[in-house]
Task: inverse folding
């Protein structure tokens, strides 16, 4: 019923938008000469180059806004929460501007009118790192002289939630100085969950506990500031130095639960607080050695100070604090040579990280980890008549020590891709790659924390890298108005880092990760985007089926799901109307079958000179938004959890942006690589 309701809502959005546009068409179709052009899409071996239309640029006010209108396959772009996520279970999305890996502040500062093209990489090469499924690289122009100042304010009207930014950029000659400051926060009381847990005890009896939230409070505030100096000698040399810092504070978040524990019923309270401070120094250098050769280097030093506190009194009070200190140095260098008939890229990445997390209280432990990783890669791209190819290989040496444990790993990342251009509109491509992946640092610690009265989370320092083999077959057909493709994707993962539950003689249930047997996943989906009226009305839809097998040493689980997404955008002069809907993200991970909530939004925006106003209505007619659902399928533990968010349902948000720019444009070499570290290694 919920899915039917969402389809009805989307149909209403589609019909009302088209009717509104039809009225506008009557006023404009009789013009003598109208120059219309749709977005130009150019296929390439690892994705496509997209040239946004003037209408799309004029109707957008930041990076998220322009990406919303491009209807990229399998991506949910949320300009309310300022987030981009993949809905197809393949991995993370990496956002770049002129090759820079950027975050929310940079996307909010971005002026869509400065965009020359967007490189959408749906088949990333070996240089992009682990767990990256999509890369979006936005290529822009910058001012040679003059300035840009502006602000971007987003405020929810139905709950306490906001995200505000001010920024400025000044150019003179070869120098550019920029500054940005962003503050965001929320305070909600509508987050609730319901859970039923069945524990099979050592004597064979089943012990049931129900945990239902009756009251909750979530609040957080974040500050992010960055100062950057850039010196560019045309396109020959670029030097950039930036100093930034982030401060996050989530004080005294709590949840009151109604516990039915066997024959007992009582109230339990969980409390959590988290505070962190992270200064970052970033130095970048680029040099065009010859017309065909270039060298790029980047070094980033990061310090992360974290203080967390946790309290939960289910069964008996349990409390611990964590005082965390993380220091890291990341460095990368890349050499590129545009040879004939191929382009050679080679480079290395070195990272050093020292983590000292002191767990105090009931979870008393000192985790002292030193991690060194050296990654080297080589890649060639070339063309043989109608055939485009990419061949690459990466290798890592990892050495880390932790509380007396010493480990050394070698990992390898070979990849090959071929694309056959059948004609100007139709192309066929095939990609195969192998990847070795290391589990996140928190799960390789030897710390142990209590989750509730029956469960504990335990790190495993003996985790080894897992081995992935991916196959991808892609057929696309593109014209000036139509972009469409069909894709099949298969992944086999050997010795994966997956969930493992142990039951002790004292009926404690311990969650950890070990190297299990195998994961097999199959994904088949299709995508289509079409301009019904060029530069005026665009529709897009994609959907597919996902099937996954998880083979553990003591379990086998299979899960089949389907997903869809659809959108419509109408450009009506100064007005823009948008509608978007998807059915969420379903996945199987270890013994956990999960669901992340569906999403729908209607949006209207108005642009006038340097101002733009946008009004959004997210998850309409949904008072209690179902944000997640999880089912644990272990033979000794069965848990079913459903989470609801009152704040995310019927969420109405207002965005106001203002930007003033003065100056002339020039082409310049921009930052092409960027390193970042946010992992504090704390078990949660």
Result:
């Amino acid at each position: 019923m919920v899915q039917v309701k969402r389809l009805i809502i989307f149909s209403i959005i589609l019909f009302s938008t088209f009717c509104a546009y039809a009225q506008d068409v009557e006023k404009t179709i009789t013009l003598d000469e109208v120059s219309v052009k749709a977005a130009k899409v150019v296929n390439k071996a690892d994705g496509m180059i997209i040239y946004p239309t003037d209408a799309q640029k004029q109707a957008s006010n930041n990076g998220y806004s322009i990406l919303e209108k491009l209807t990229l396959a399998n991506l949910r772009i949320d300009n309310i929460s300022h987030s981009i996520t993949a809905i197809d279970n393949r991995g993370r999305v990496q956002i770049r501007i002129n090759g820079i890996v950027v975050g929310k502040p940079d996307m909010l500062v971005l002026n869509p009118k400065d965009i020359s093209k967007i490189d959408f990489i749906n088949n990333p090469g070996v240089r992009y790192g682990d767990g990256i499924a999509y890369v979006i690289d936005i290529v822009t122009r910058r001012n040679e002289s003059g300035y840009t100042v502006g602000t971007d304010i987003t405020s929810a009207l139905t709950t306490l939630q906001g995200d505000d930014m001010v920024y400025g950029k000044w150019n003179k000659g070869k120098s550019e100085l920029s500054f940005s400051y962003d503050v965001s926060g929320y305070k909600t009381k509508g987050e609730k969950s319901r859970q039923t847990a069945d524990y099979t005890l050592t004597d064979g009896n089943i012990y049931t506990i129900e945990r239902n939230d009756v009251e909750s409070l979530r609040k957080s505030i974040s500050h992010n500031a960055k100062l950057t100096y850039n010196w560019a000698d045309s396109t020959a040399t670029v030097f950039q130095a930036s100093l930034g810092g982030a401060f996050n504070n989530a004080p005294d978040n709590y949840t009151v639960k109604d516990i039915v524990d066997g024959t007992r019923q009582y109230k339990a309270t969980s409390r959590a607080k988290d505070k962190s401070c992270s200064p970052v120094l970033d130095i970048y250098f680029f040099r065009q050695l010859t017309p065909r050769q270039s060298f790029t280097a980047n070094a980033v030093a990061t310090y992360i100070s974290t203080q967390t506190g946790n309290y939960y009194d289910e069964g008996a009070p349990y409390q611990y604090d964590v005082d965390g200190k993380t220091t890291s140095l990341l460095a990368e260098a890349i050499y590129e040579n545009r040879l004939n008939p191929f382009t050679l890229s080679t480079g290395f990445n070195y990272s050093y990280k020292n983590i000292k997390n002191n767990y105090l209280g009931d979870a008393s432990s000192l985790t002292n980890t030193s991690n060194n990783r050296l990654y080297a890669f080589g890649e060639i791209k070339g063309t043989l008549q109608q055939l485009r190819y990419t061949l690459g290989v990466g290798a890592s040496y990892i050495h880390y020590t932790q509380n007396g444990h010493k480990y050394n790993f070698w990992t390898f990342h070979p990849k090959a891709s071929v694309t056959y251009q059948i004609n100007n509109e139709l192309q066929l491509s095939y990609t195969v790659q192998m990847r070795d992946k290391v589990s996140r640092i928190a799960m390789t610690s030897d710390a142990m924390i209590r989750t509730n009265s029956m469960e504990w989370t335990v790190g495993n320092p003996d985790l080894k890298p897992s081995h992935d083999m991916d196959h991808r077959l892609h057929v696309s057909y593109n014209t000036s108005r139509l972009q469409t493709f069909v894709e099949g994707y298969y992944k086999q993962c050997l010795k994966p880092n997956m969930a493992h539950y142990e039951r002790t003689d004292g009926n404690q249930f311990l969650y950890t990760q070990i190297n299990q047997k195998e994961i097999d996943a199959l994904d088949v989906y299709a995508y289509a985007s079409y301009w019904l009226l060029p530069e005026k009305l665009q529709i897009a839809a994609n959907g597919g089926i996902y099937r996954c097998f998880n083979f553990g040493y003591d379990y086998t689980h299979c899960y089949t799901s389907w997903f869809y997404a659809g959108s419509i955008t109408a450009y009506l002069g100064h007005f823009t109307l948008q509608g978007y809907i998807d059915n969420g993200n379903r996945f199987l991970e270890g013994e956990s079958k999960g669901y992340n909530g569906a999403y729908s939004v209607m949006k209207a925006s108005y642009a006038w000179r340097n101002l733009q106003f946008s009004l959004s209505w997210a998850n309409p007619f949904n008072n209690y938004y179902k944000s997640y659902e999880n089912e644990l399928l272990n033979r000794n533990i069965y848990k079913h959890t459903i989470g609801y968010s009152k704040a995310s349902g019927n969420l109405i948000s207002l965005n106001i942006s203002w930007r003033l720019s003065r100056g002339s444009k020039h082409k310049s070499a921009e930052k092409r690589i960027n390193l970042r570290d946010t992992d504090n290694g704390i078990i949660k």
About this structure: Residues 2-666 form a domain with the Maltoporin; Chain A fold (CATH 2.40.170.20). DSSP finds four helices and 39 strands in the chain. Residues 1-39, 666-671 have pLDDT under 50 and may be disordered.
